[in-house]
């Protein structure tokens, strides 16, 4: 899954639509109140005033007796403390030089939010505190920050001393209160020259420099060989690595920590291999991503040290062949993750508890059951078939995809570490991955402007949310109606405590219109738009197997003791074509997978499409029928908009020579059978294939 290398803004449960305002969202009176009102469950509005110099945000909510109540919240400042570890060159570490340094005001810091907005007009002074006993000097600084501020995204360091100094670490702690982010460590590890006008930026360990969170005693060194020098070389020095991160130019396909624990187990299987991988992309001026580096890693074992190597496009013939092989391994990782996580786990698997709980706890006459019913069509049946033919032991997935018999184990591990219900909402997912930031007005700003999945997906998300809002508003006049609905609360409680009992966080409380609309929109989006985007393009994109290999069967020719010729195995030097073909899936694996991909990418003859299929219960109610009519009109308008986007020559990711138009999220209009591609037949209501 592609992520941006800058720190993403904290994902919040949004209570207003991106593009069209929800009829249940509270609208902030001014920007200062937006941070609170966006996540509140109010229906009427938000008021604010200043009390004793502090901003007080008041939310209004209509109670069952029709009165308005107001709840005051004080938005207080927090104190941020920063500890900086500083060293001098050995020649400069004289008593006089040290005494001069510790008595001067020379080290200044400024922190930036994840939106890369500075917190202060001028960098703040860091003062000498003590020595750490290892020859380093500890400096400390304190900052006052508003509680509404986003996560820390970068730190600026200014050296106004007369000598070059070495900054190793900057530890940032939040003193008192609570916030959406935790303590952060910046591993700078850089010499900084004396230059009062020079601005050196550093980023959290999770972003750059790249570092693993796994145990080094078990897997080996956690630092990445993708260095700032390598990045700057690959982007031809157009900017520094720090500037590339700050300007949102670097993106990473990160399968390092996810795959590394499985490498040795997979390598014990016949005719297959596995690495952990990181792939770095640079966002060009045209808005397209260019891969600039691939790092492959094999963890250490009791008998062998860790092996890792970075591959780049290169200029020599040998480097080009190695780059092609490295891409084959990464594509196998991405194909496996796509099938096991993006497709099976996040749609088929995680939707099941919603279906089961709805049939157990909601009457078929319940309005929420009637709303969700078309989005659960055939899901249990198709999942039962998948368990018997695809993901079963020694089935097609285990026989032809990278993790082999560990496929479901990998899927379960990702569920355990990463899955949260509130992050399955499209806006929250984009924010979490750093592919979007939330602006002060609640709108999303994409970090890649021409990102077809996000561009089209947000249109679909907004349209679904408006339809759900109209529907919920019709049946629930007051927030208390939602809270007192025993069937509804019983369904949601069973989803959380029985369907996903091991997940304690990320579950909204169904206590107001905003939270109910968000929950229902998320479920409908996953069952329709998300599934359509990850399913129906499988054969069109992966039908040519070298484009999307499902498995890599040979190690890189630069790994192992058999390397002799310039660090490469003789077989690779003699016949690189044969090595590449042997790395691809076998002919048997290819013929096993291709028919399945073709079947999965097909639409059933009786498919029901979003925005066109209407339940009879909806049509029987005049207001609901009118709301669905508006939903249908919006979907038809979106289809026309997507057609225009695919013809826009400025959108290089969906138009141009060799570029496939993006139609996976194009709503159906007319007869789906008349469409030129299976990908543009429409968005099915449910996971039915």
Note down, in words, how this protein is organized.
GO terms for molecular function: linoleate 13S-lipoxygenase activity; metal ion binding. Keywords: Chloroplast, Dioxygenase, Fatty acid biosynthesis, Fatty acid metabolism, Iron, Lipid biosynthesis, Lipid metabolism, Metal-binding, Oxidoreductase, Oxylipin biosynthesis, Plastid, Transit peptide. Its cofactor is Fe cation. Belongs to the lipoxygenase family. It comes from Oryza sativa subsp. indica. With 689 residues, this protein is α+β, with helices and mostly antiparallel strands. It folds into 4 domains: 74 residues, no CATH class; 125 residues, PLAT/LH2 domain (Lipoxygenase-1); 98 residues, Nuclear Transport Factor 2, Chain: A (Roll); 281 residues, Up-down Bundle (Lipoxygenase-1, domain 5), CATH 1.20.245.10. Helix content is 37%, strand content 19%. The strands form 4 sheets. Strands 11-10-5-8-7-6-9-12 form an 8-stranded antiparallel β-sheet. Strand 2 and strand 3 form a beta hairpin. The two termini are 23 Å apart.
Write the layout of secondary structure elements.
Layout: E1 2-4, H1 31-37, E2 45-51, E3 54-62, E4 68-75, E5 77-88, H2 95-102, E6 107-113, E7 124-131, E8 137-146, E9 152-159, E10 165-175, E11 184-192, E12 200-202, H3 216-219, H4 228-234, H5 241-246, E13 250-255, H6 256-259, H7 263-267, E14 276-283, E15 289-298, E16 307-311, H8 317-361, H9 367-372, H10 379-389, H11 396-400, H12 407-418, H13 426-432, E17 436-438, E18 444-446, H14 452-475, H15 479-483, H16 486-499, H17 513-535, H18 538-542, H19 570-574, H20 576-583, H21 587-600, H22 616-619, H23 622-646
Antiparallel strand pairs: 1-13, 2-3, 3-4, 5-8, 5-10, 6-7, 6-9, 7-8, 9-12, 10-11, 13-14, 14-15, 15-16, 17-18
Helix pairs in contact: 8-12, 8-16, 8-17, 14-17, 14-23
């Amino acid at each position: 899954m592609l992520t941006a290398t800058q720190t993403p803004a904290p994902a919040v449960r949004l209570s207003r639509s991106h593009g069209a305002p929800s009829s249940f969202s509270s609208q902030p009176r001014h920007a200062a109140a937006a941070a609170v009102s966006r996540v509140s469950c109010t229906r009427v509005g938000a008021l604010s005033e200043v009390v004793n110099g502090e901003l007080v945000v008041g939310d209004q909510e209509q109670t069952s007796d029709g009165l308005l109540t107001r709840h005051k919240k004080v938005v207080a400042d927090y104190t941020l403390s920063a500890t900086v570890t500083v060293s001098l060159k050995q020649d400069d570490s004289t008593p006089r030089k040290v005494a001069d340094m510790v008595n001067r005001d020379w080290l200044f810091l400024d922190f930036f939010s994840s939106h890369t907005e500075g917190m202060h007009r001028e960098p703040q002074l860091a003062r000498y505190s003590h020595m750490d006993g290892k020859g380093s000097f500890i400096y400390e600084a304190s900052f006052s920050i508003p509680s509404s501020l986003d996560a820390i995204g970068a730190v600026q360091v200014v050296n106004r001393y007369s000598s070059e100094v070495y900054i190793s670490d900057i530890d940032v702690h939040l003193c008192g209160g609570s916030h959406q982010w935790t303590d952060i460590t910046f591993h700078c590890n850089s010499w900084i020259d004396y230059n009062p006008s020079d601005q050196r930026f550093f980023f959290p360990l999770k972003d750059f420099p790249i570092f693993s969170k796994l145990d080094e005693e078990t897997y080996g060194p956690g630092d990445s060989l993708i260095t700032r020098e390598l990045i700057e070389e690959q982007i031809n020095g157009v900017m520094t690595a720090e500037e590339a991160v700050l300007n949102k130019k670097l993106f990473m396909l990160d399968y390092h920590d996810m795959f590394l624990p499985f490498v040795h187990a997979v390598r014990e299987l016949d005719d297959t291999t596995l690495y952990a991988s990181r792939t770095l992309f640079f966002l060009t001026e045209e808005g397209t991503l260019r891969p600039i580096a691939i790092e492959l890693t094999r963890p250490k074992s009791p008998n062998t040290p860790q092996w890792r190597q970075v591959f780049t496009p290169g200029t020599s013939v040998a480097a080009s062949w190695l780059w092609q092989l490295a891409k084959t391994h990464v594509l196998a990782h991405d194909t496996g993750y796509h099938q096991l996580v993006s497709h099976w786990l996040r749609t088929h698997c995680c939707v099941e508890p919603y279906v089961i709980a709805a049939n157990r706890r909601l009457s078929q006459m319940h309005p929420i059951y009637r709303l969700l019913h078309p989005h659960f069509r055939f899901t249990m049946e198709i999942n039962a078939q998948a368990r018997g033919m695809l993901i079963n032991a020694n089935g097609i997935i285990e026989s032809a995809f990278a993790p082999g018999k560990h496929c479901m184990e990998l899927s379960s591990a990702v569920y355990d570490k990463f899955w949260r219900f509130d992050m399955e909402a499209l806006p929250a997912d984009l924010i979490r991955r750093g592919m979007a930031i939330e602006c002060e007005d609640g709108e999303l700003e994409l970090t890649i402007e021409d990102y077809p999945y996000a561009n089209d997906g947000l249109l679909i998300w907004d349209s679904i949310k408006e339809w759900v809002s109209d529907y919920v508003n019709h049946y629930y006049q007051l927030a208390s109606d939602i809270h007192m609905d025993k069937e509804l609360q019983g369904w949601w409680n069973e989803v959380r405590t029985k369907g996903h009992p091991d997940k304690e966080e990320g579950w909204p409380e169904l206590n107001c219109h905003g939270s109910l609309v968000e929950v229902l929109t998320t479920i409908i989006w996953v069952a329709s738009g998300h599934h359509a985007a990850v399913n129906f393009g499988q054969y069109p994109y992966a039908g040519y197997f070298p484009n999307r290999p499902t498995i890599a069967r040979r190690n890189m020719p630069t790994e192992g003791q058999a390397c002799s010729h310039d660090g490469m195995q003789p077989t690779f030097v003699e016949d690189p074509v044969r090595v590449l073909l042997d790395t691809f899936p076998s002919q048997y694996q290819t013929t096993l997978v291709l028919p399945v991909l073709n079947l999965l990418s097909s639409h059933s003859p009786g498919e029901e499409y979003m925005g066109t299929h209407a339940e009879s219960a909806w049509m029987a109610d005049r207001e609901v029928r009118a709301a669905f009519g508006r939903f249908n009109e919006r979907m038809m308008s979106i289809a026309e908009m997507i057609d225009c986007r695919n013809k826009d020559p400025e959108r290089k990711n969906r138009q141009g020579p060799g570029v496939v138009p993006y139609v996976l999220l194009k709503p159906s209009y007319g007869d789906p059978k008349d469409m030129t591609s299976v990908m543009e037949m429409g968005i099915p209501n449910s996971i039915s294939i």
